[in-house]
Every structure is written in C-alpha cells, then in structure tokens.
Amino acid sequence: MYMERYRLKFEKLGNMRFIGHLDTVALFQRCLKLAQLPISYSKGYHPRQEVAFALPLGLGIAGTGEFVDIQLDREILQSDIIDGLNAHFPIGIKIIGARQLEPNERIAPRIVIAAEYEIIVHKNIEPQIYELLNNEEVIVIKKSKSGEKPVNIRPLIFEATYENNKLRTVLATGERNLKPQLLMEYLMPGAENIYYTRTDILKEGLKSL
Amino acid sequence: MTISLSDELLLSVEKPSRYLGGELNTVIKDLNTVKTRFLFCYPDVYEVGMSNIGLNILYYFLNRREQTYCERAFAPWLDMEDCMRQQGIPLFSLETKTPGADFHFIGFTLQYEMCYTNIINMLDLAGIAPLSKERKENDPILIAGGPCVYNPEPLADIIDIFYIGDGEAVLDSLLDVYEENKRNQGTKNQFLEKILHIDGIYVPRFYDVTYNIDGTLAGFAKNNANAKNKISKVIVRDIDNMFVPKTQMVPLIETAHYRATLELFRGCIRGCRFCQAGYTHRPVREKSPDNLLAQGEQILTNTGHEEISLSSLSTGDYIPLPYLIENLLKNFPTTNLSLPSLRIDNITAEIISNTQNIRRSSITFAPEAGSQRLRDIINKDITEEEIFNGARLAFENGHSKLKLYFMIGLPSEEQEDISAIAKLAKDVLAIKPKALIVVSSSCFVPKAFTPFQWEAQNTHQQLMDKQEYLKQNVAKKKINHKYHDAKMAVIEGVISRGDRRVGAAIIAAQKLGAKFDGWTDYFDYEIWQKAFAEVGIDPGFYAHRTRLTNEILPWDHIDIGVTKDFLIKELEKSKKGIVTKNCRENCAFCGVKDCDVYGKV
Ligand code: SF4
C-alpha cells in the first residue's frame, strides 16, 4: 500500500501540561480517529495506529515545539490534517505545523538527541550559570529506582544562556539525559514557582526536527 | 471570581486531570449570556462519576437550555481535599473553576447511600451550611435525584428540592419557574412554593414529621396549603422520543467504563423482591432498536470510543436484543460489545460468542441465593438446571472465568442455604474443572419500596459469621471467595430505611471525618458508632427491626405507582415461597399506570 508519513509540530499548554504521556498518546489516537484521517494501522493481531511521539514531555512542563510522526494510507493536504485535528483537540493542544517526511527519513524518536527549554525563574541566576558553564565537572545526586548516585551533568548541557529571568538551555536526551528540573535543583535548590517550557526537540547538529 | 490551581498543587496530587476540566465534548458557554448556573455534583471520585450514564444525560439535557449552564464537580480525592483545605480553596466547577457557593443550583445525584457523607463533605468544602434552614437567601438551592431518592428522608433537612423519577421529565418546568420567579424578583421561598404543583417535586420543608414514643412515625403532615399530600414519581413514558444526548464526555484519563453506553430500556420485568429499582422504575419502557442503532452511530462518531455497552437492569430481557446485536456488529465491525447485567437463564450462544472478543475475560451471573427454596422466596426465578446450562454455554464459548454473585443475610436464610452456595459453585466447577469460579457474596440490605421493606436486616455479627461459614465451605483452589464488608452493609441499611433523624448522624459522621464510605479502605465503622451515639440514634432501630405492615414508613408520602397492598401481597407470597411470574408472562397488578408490558413478546 502507498503510505505517506508526516511530522506534525504541536503545542501542549495550560491544563494540558498535566496530562501524562500515555494519556496524551491516547488522546492523539482518538482525535486522529475523530478527524477521520486515513491513519495507517500496524499489521498483526492487535493493529495499532502508526503514531510515534518524538519525546515524552514531563508532567507540568509546557511544550511549544513538540513533534509526532504519523503515517497515513494516502496523501492529504497538510492544512487538512492540521485543521482536522485542531477541530477535535481540547484547549491547550494544537497542531502548529506539518511536513511530509522524505522516504529515507527516520522516525522522530530514533533521531532525537537533545531538547531546548525555556525556564522562567524569579531570581537572577546569571552568576550560577556562568559558573556552571566554566566548570568541567558538575556533580549532582540523581535519584532513580535503583537508588541515588552522583552524576556529572556538565557534558549533558549543550547550551545555556540567561537573560531577564529567563534561562534558555539545550539538554541531552536519550540514554544519558538531563531533566530540566534536576538542573534547576542544582542551580536553585528548593526554589518554587519555576515555569518550564520545552521549546524545541533537536536532532544531530542540534537542528530542529 | 474563579479559582486558580498552582502548578505545585497540581503536581503534588495523584491524577491532576481529575480537577482540570476541558475533556472532549464538554460544554463551554459565555457566562455573560447565561442566566441560571447549575453545578452538578457527583459525590464520588472523578473516574466513578464520569462513568455514570445519568450524569452524561443530565449534563447535556440541562446545557441544551441556552441560558442554563450546567457544570460539574466531583468529590476531590483525599490528597486534593487536604491541599484545598490547607490553601483555603473551595469546591469548584471543572468547566469555569467557579466556587460552588456562586451557583444558583447545586444538584446531587444519589447513586448509593454510602456517598451521603461525601455530599456533606462537598458542601463543607464549598462553604455551604448542610442544613437547609441554616442557609441564606443567596445560597445555592440544593436539588437531588437519582436511584436513592425514593426514600429521601435521611437528606430531608439538607436538600431543598428532590425530584422523584426521571430528571428529564421535571427539570425543564422547574427551571422555567425559577427563571420566571427571578425575573419577578421573587424570593427563594416563593420559588419553592411555586414548584409544588409540578409532579414529582418534593420540597421537604413544607412537611412536618411527628414521632411516637417508641420512635416510629406518628404522622407526616404538610404545613403549606400548596403542598401535595402524596408526591408521585414522574417518568418519561414516550421513551423513544425523549431527549438523548448525541455524544458523551470523554475524560482525558482512562476511567472505569471507557466506552459508549446505550440505554436499552428503563424498568425491569422481573420483580426480584430485594431489588428496589425493579419496583421504583416500573413500568418497563423499551427503546426501539433502530433508534438505538442511530444513537450508537452518533455517539461512536462523536467520541471515537471502541467499545459499546448495552445498559439496562437486565439486558437479556430486551426483546429485540438479537436484532440489535446483529446490526451493531454489522454496522460497527471493529467495535467491541459489552453486555453487563445478563441473566443466566436467557443468554444464548449468539450473545456469548459475540461478546467474548472483548478484553474482559470473565462473565458474571447472579443467582443471588444458593438454594431453590431461597431463590423462590426472593423471586429470583431461575432453576439450578438453568444455571448449569448458562455456565456450560459460557464455558463452551471460551470463557474460563465465571463470576457468581450471591447475597448473604436474605430473609429466612438458614445455614443450609449458605452451604447450597458452596455446593452450587462446586457443581458449576465440575462442568469445567479447569475453569476458575469467583463466588462473590454481598450482604443483603432491605430497601424502601420492596416487599422486604418491613424485614429485619441481619446484624453485622450474623453477617460476618455467615460470610465466615461460606468462606470455610467454599475455599477451594479453583473457587475464589470475595465478600463485602458486613459493617458497611449495616450502615447502608440504617440510611436506606432511615427517617429525618438519620440526617443528623450523616452530618455528625462527616464532622468526625467520614468520607468515601463506599470505599472499604476509607470506611470507618467506629466513626459511625460515635456519630449515632452523638445524635442519640439507635442504628438497630432502623436496620435490625421488623416493621409491622401498618406502621407509617418514612417514605409513605412518595408514590412510585406500585401500591403498598401489592408489596404486602408480595411479602406474604415470599413467606410461602410462592413465585410471582415476570410481567411479560403474567401481570400481577402492581398498581403502576400506563403499563403495556404484559403479553409482549
Ligand atoms: S402493571 Fe402488571 S405488567 Fe405492569 S409492571 Fe405492574 S405487574 Fe408488571
């Protein structure tokens, strides 16, 4: 069958920040159905829609540059995909772009290496950022199911700039990843009222998906 | 004023999406064009409430009125309640985050007596006094309906208006009167008086109760000339042309029943003597299957659901069921079918084989009692042979797990009846020794408007002894035994046949911390003991006392159509073990009007 793959760019804002990844996946699948798009299904006993999210977004974090790949059974106008889905999404989720994938392009989750965040704080942290970037080793305690262990997070920070209570940073994802909350816990221990937005998801060369 | 919830708060509670609103197909209105604001409160946790078909119907029913805006609130889960109390956040609506106290109406659905402390708790969270006489002119008007409304008395001092019967049949006239009264700048009391002529409306403040020295009711008299002596239930008779929502709200998190629901009919032909809905929902009103097919299509296209549930009190009794199933499968080949409430004596191979493909691997039947003697007494008209046949059919069609549902503590029950449960389970297992049988035994609670409304409920000690005896006898490798909390059943028993004085105990229990009483983990019997002592109520008087049939019952002013004489006759027949045939086979002249059930095939 002739398949067409699309990469959709979307926002996840407001209340939708508190919908977890699995529920977000289910919501997309439902809205793809409601929009009556000719979504492809996997073969096998339990056919699944061919939908691949680039990178799960943590609970409470806003997203302005999120990505998901979908596969359709036939070609459709990109604007029809966007309008069709947006007619069904609840307030807070919106498709803001779509492009057709080249036949040889790999799906989003396979090529992600980093994510860009914008973090709003209520204190000047310029000196801390300066110090962070000038250190070769930054050790923090990472808690996981298997216990606590020290990790050097410095190599996981690709970029960090600070201006007007806004920290813009690019952090590694994948097997060795850095959650923005862990970075902030290091920079401003115990601080509250930090507002996180993931603004982009990046592939090799730190290029947007 | 609207409530805003901080990110920290939302991240600190389990499942923040319970409090967000914004689900698919929820209604957004411009508050400037809305005149009457109605907060529909479901006194249980979000997931339970969002699975309720009644909530969905009334939500769209009320919102179809342009100037009425119905929003929702659920009982916040314990972690959220703690945060709300700490931060002074009142109960709020999910749609616009408006505090509960700012609504014109607060509506409660009474699904289950053990939710009543949640009602008081939600009022408390909203900053609304529980007693109607303590509320002010500008406080919301409290209205309630639902399956438990047929004995409204335990909540009579709390709720302003009860509607008895189908909400679709009364709420329009009620809101019309409200809006007119408001235009004329009438008071709350004037409004309450003006609705007294509407059928099905009960305003408890216009009636006074007096008691005898022995605690029984001495009299029930109206104190307002416009009040009716008897409040008759109202129902939608023309069920095919009634309001039906074209869609369903779809939560953003998975809930218990994440599926489309079609209501096949209201009422039940059976007349099991323990079942309140079997009497209060009479007569049976069936929807036409073509109508249901069209509704099903609408709901599936508007929700994207992949499962459709056929709901009723006894789905196998729907006459056109084979036609409906055949066409549902034809029209929606990828949609799974689920049929709760099947009777073991009228399932067919078609029904079973067409529903087995759903993920649920077990099938449930309810013989209710272990022995034929007791089944005859409760009028559960099925034989052992029919149970075996039904089980065989289920096994042959691929089911390997069978749930059998029984009640413990039924009138006249002896030890042999309980042994018979164990034996029945063993005999069913013998049909397919590799199968797994789950015996679930709940505790019988006598309910108003049933032939057993005069009967004494077993004490919790008796119930626990019986459960223990069953456990000893049934416990086998391939038979699991699950049972319900006997103490919880006794509290349910007190409330379900309670009078106005029981309301004080519900309020006292909430003050002592009772909430989510239907949840075994949170139910606290001690609290209830204390509450009863505090308000001077003897729970045994309500739960464990046999009433004389000439006693004035707290719910005697409600008229469900079925006569008291009929219920007395049924009680006498039950004592003799005489079965009453189902309504299609034989009309027993229960008194209900406009009934066309007898003789239908
Ligand atoms: S009138 Fe007869 S057929 Fe109708 S509900 Fe009553 S007993 Fe059944």
Task: Give a quick set of tags describing it.
heterodimer; A: 209 residues; alpha+beta; nine-stranded mixed beta sheet; 5 helices; elongated; B: 601 residues; alpha/beta; four-stranded parallel beta sheet; 19 strands; 33% helix; binds iron/sulfur cluster
Nutshell version of this structure?
The complex is a heterodimer of chains A (209) and B (601). Chain A has helices at 21-34, 78-86, 108-111, 126-134, 180-187; strands spanning 4-12, 51-53, 62-72, 93-100, 114-120, 139-144, 147-152, 157-163, 166-172, 195-203, 207-208.
Structural account:
The complex is a heterodimer of chains A (209) and B (601). Chain A has 209 residues and is of the alpha+beta class. Chain A has five helices and eleven strands. In chain A, a hairpin with a 2-residue loop joins strand 6 (139-144) and strand 7 (147-152). Chain B has 601 residues and is α/β, with parallel strands linked by helices. Helix content of chain B is 33%, strand content 15%. Chain B contains 20 helices and 19 strands. In chain B, the strands form six sheets. A six-stranded mixed sheet of chain B has the order 2-1-3-4-5-6, covered by helices on one side. Chain B is globular, with a radius of gyration of 24 Å. The mean pLDDT of chain B is 93. Chains A and B meet through helix 1 of A and helix 1 and helix 9 of B. Bound molecules: iron/sulfur cluster. Iron/sulfur cluster (SF4) binds at residues 282-283, 583, 587-590, 592, 595, 597-598 of chain B.
What is the overall shape of chain A?
A: elongated
* Structure classification of chain A: alpha+beta
Number of distinct beta strands of chain B: 19
* Physical arrangement of strands within the biggest beta sheet of chain B: 2-1-3-4-5-6
Supply Rg of chain B. 24 Å
Count of discrete alpha- or pi-helical segments spanning 4 or more residues of chain A: 5
